[in-house]
Design goal:
single chain, 358 residues, Aspartate Aminotransferase, domain 2, 2 domains, binds pyridoxal-5'-phosphate
Length: 358
């Protein structure tokens, strides 16, 4: 089983004999409140547009994203998910040396290894509750000559958020490329926490986002990067193939970024559900729960008599999937990650975890 990402629902449904939609997936970090109703309506009305090419300039889509992100369409590069843009950035910058905040989403290291980059890791440390020591980080940046810094903010899997004030300090000290993956930023107070306001004025700071998590659309593969016009922008913008965003992703994107009713509902419900999960987990003996600024929570089994493998297995048998976190460097086989789902599913999970430890 590929343990580097969340659940492979195709494989799991085969192994468990369950329909993909009946698996309770606490591992993929996807907003449980469904798709934007406006996006669904728009898709249904325009299904026949499969017979034409998408707009090669994606004017409407970029307009929609620019209003949502408070930037200009000229600051936007579209990609097939955040994943394509992470890869495109690494392939464009071709860093000889990179600083990677670790543990983090595995694709950064995978992409850097493809180009034989010399990677230095800077750790989110357990003894610091997985918060970043900014002075130490700046010291590391100043003492070395990195070509690229990679930051996931908030970070997967720790849920740590580097405050915008600290991102500004990093930006002031480091004049080469900074790539910030904000895939989970909408689960924070993102108008205040996002680095987009910096990126639109800095041609070396690239913010990457996707719609898979907050907008619950991993199937359409829609992502976007935001940065100021300049050499990096031009080089990355040259990479995607013509019409790389298919017309259905484009149609949904045009609507969902404007669906404020849906967006507000998600924020409101998310907070309630997060609290239910977080406080519920905190009450369970034998596990330590780390604070999170995202839609997932990192936990650690503290009792040596219990293992994550056994917990995973007991939940798996019931069609509930959590993310074992051992594959993340800096964590071990005592860690697991759980994302925020519906209240109904959270209650089922809490009940099952409680039973496991009894
Ligand atoms: C931090 C992070 N970035 C990017 C992705 C992938 O996003 P996308 O579906 O937009 O390619 C994930 C998926 O788990 C992720 O955790």
């Amino acid at each position: 089983m590929n343990n580097n990402h969340g659940a492979n629902l195709y494989e799991l449904s085969h192994n468990l004999g369950l329909n993909k939609t009946n698996i309770i997936d606490f591992s993929s970090n996807i907003n449980p409140f469904g798709l934007s109703p406006k996006a669904i309506e728009s898709l249904q009305k325009n299904i026949h547009l499969a017979s034409i090419y998408p707009d090669p300039d994606y004017k409407e889509l970029k307009k929609s994203i620019s209003e949502y992100c408070h930037c200009f369409p000229k600051n936007i590069i579209l990609g097939s998910g955040a994943t394509e843009l992470i890869s495109a950035t690494v392939k464009t910058v071709l860093p000889k040396t990179a600083l990677l905040l670790t543990p983090a989403y595995s694709e950064y290291e995978k992409e850097l290894n493809k180009i034989n980059c010399n990677i230095t890791k800077f750790y989110y440390k357990k003894e610091n509750q997985f918060n970043i020591d900014i002075l130490n980080l700046i010291n590391t940046i100043e003492k070395n000559d990195f070509d690229l810094i990679v930051i996931c903010n908030p970070n997967n899997p720790t849920g740590t958020l580097i405050p915008i004030g600290d991102i500004k300090i990093i930006e002031e000290k480091f004049k080469k490329t900074i790539m910030i993956d904000e895939t989970y930023i909408e689960f924070t107070d993102f108008e205040k926490t996002s680095a987009i306001s910096l990126a639109i004025n800095n041609p070396n700071l690239i913010v990457i986002r996707g719609t898979s998590k907050f907008f619950a659309t991993p199937g359409i593969r829609l992502g976007y990067a935001i940065l100021a016009q300049g050499e990096l922008f031009n080089k990355i913008n040259r990479l995607p193939n013509l019409w790389n965003i298919n017309i259905f992703a484009s149609i949904m994107g045009e609507s969902m970024f404007k669906d404020t009713e849906y967006i507000n509902m998600c924020h409101l419900k998310f907070e309630e559900n997060f609290n239910l999960l977080f406080l519920g987990l905190k009450k369970i003996e034998n596990i330590k729960v780390y604070n999170s600024n995202s839609n997932f929570i990192l936990c650690e089994i503290t009792n040596p008599n219990f293992s994550v493998d056994n917990l995973y297995l007991s939940l798996y048998k019931k069609g509930i999937i959590i993310r074992k976190a051992e594959s993340f460097e800096g964590l071990n086989n005592k860690f697991f990650r759980i994302c925020v789902l519906t209240k109904e599913h959270i209650k089922i999970l809490l009940n099952e975890i409680n039973n496991f430890f009894k």
